[in-house]
Amino acid sequence: MRVRFAPSPTGALHIGGARAALYNWLLAHQLNEQGSGTRGTFMLRIEDTDRERSTDANVAQILDALTWLGLQWDEGPISQVGNTPRHQEALAQLLADGHAYHSNATAEDVKNYKQTHGADRGFRGEPESSGAVRLHVPDDGHTGFEDLVRGEVSFPNAAMDDPVIARADGSVLYNFAVAVDDLDAKITHVVRGEDHISNTPKQLLVFEALGATPPQYAHLPLLHGPDGKKLSKRHGAASVQELRDAGYLPEAVNNYIALLGTGFAPDEEFFTLQEMAERFRLDRVSRSPAVFDEQKLRHLNGMHLRALELDELTERLEQFTGRSGLHDAVAISREKIQTLADFWPLAGFLFDGPADDPAAFARTIGSDAGREALADARAALAEVQAFTPAAVEQALRAVVERRGLKPGQVFQPVRVAIAGTTVSPGIFESVALLGRDRTLELIDRALAR
RNA sequence: GCCCCCAUGGUCUAGCGGUUAGGACGCCUCCCUUUCACGGAGGAGAUCGCCGGUUCGAGCCCGGCUGGGGGUACCA
Asked: Is the CB of A420 under 7 A from strand B?
């Protein structure tokens, strides 16, 4: 099995593109049916025949995103324009065989033709000695294929226009280049977005004209935003780098976008890349578009976050925040965060001091009762010998007991004194981590306000 | 307009002729409890888009309709 992911570098790697890449990767990483112990090949090809919009910066971004996701390609990346000689050769062959012809017909001409012949009559040009190159489409019959996720898909030839496969200047167009490249690369399965489904018959016709056997095709449903429209920038994070910047883990992104279009088990949703590769089946892929739901991504991200080894999580968090020495703080925060971005707002006070939240202060320490509880807590903590979470807990609970309060009436003032806000990791763990001196200093400062 | 694809709770899915239509996210209640989370126990929420047909029996098969989406470029 040889598959490929062939993005056009006209922008960052979109989530939909990432899913296409992932599904191809999963396919290539499945062991061959014959039990030979070998797997397929995942090729990366950059579809850069659109010189206007393709940029090197976009290519770099796409490679970066795929690398981050861990979707390593086995071959490539190859540039489509790099295949120009071969494209020209194939083009000359079709021209010589009479499968294609030169035509000066413009888009306007095509429109007019349909005006007079009916919208269901495709445009057929007259061969000329110069101009763009169009492929001959049969007048009758259908061009169809067995889509691996949808089943039989068929297009009436009569409704198809003779597609332009090369510009007047000789440069080839997408539908022609793709077919030639897939043929040359011996691609066996083309797995791509549904927006390509109507391109397939054109490519099939190119294979036919070349006398070659086409690969098998599978078209994935598109991803939509919450409004049911095609997913785009206006729906928030739509590119892989935006997800990375938002603190999502590649493991979770892969897991989530894979789930968005297929199920791997009736009642399980947490999977690693390897597990997904083992279970993935093209014929199990959904045929209907899915809505991207960041809430669920967050949930899955939390699960993957907690599944990481502490050292590994720490490393990623240090990379994400640009800070170091986070290990102990991560240990007491990990079960309270869902994304890497959640960490600093929760535990940053352990390093940079309390946050400024006047409302939280007023609510917990602003009252006489709050100040008294805090003062008592301070006194109790000052007496603690070994400053461990357990010892801190014992001391603080003793205060609760002595004053006949509810736990929160003591813990919250302490929390706000050290963290500045009412949300933090466990209070005993936080206090212990800060140490006695620092804790007492912060409490004193709060008491002095 | 024309061509193509799709249709299970708000969202993602399981279901593959006979189920109390299962799970997950989200939402609500409760437990745990020191905040937030995590974990645990419950709950609300679906006439399986609609109408016909096939069948003893249809979410599952067939047809039509409606709705949504994609394409319709000398873009990819």
From this structure: no
